[in-house]
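User: Sterile alpha motif domain-containing protein 13. Structure?
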Amino acid sequence: MRNYCNLTDSGMEDKANGTVDTKSPVENGQLPDPANWGVADVVNYFKATGFEEQATAFQDQEIDGKSLLLMTRNDVLTGLSIKLGPALKIYEYHVKQLQTQHLKSNAS
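Assistant: Predicted structure:
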């Protein structure tokens, strides 16, 4: 189980005002490589970032970190059977960013 701490991400949205303080797993001040996450880590990440209800879809579909990094926009929007609004936010603000982070960390 990973530790969680508060991080602010200006790209995130809040139900009230367009910003949110998120909780993300952090190791040495950085997110660990999602490729090493198990299904429980993925579920906990989405619960901690405000998608408690939608996190169960990742559990039901057995999405681990490697699977998460392979997901396309269409996979998130249609393959997880979650409402369109949260699915768009999950893909744009989380999945895509985690994929980018993974690519950057492995390119160096």
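The chain has five helices and two strands. Residues 84-107 form the longest helix (24 residues).
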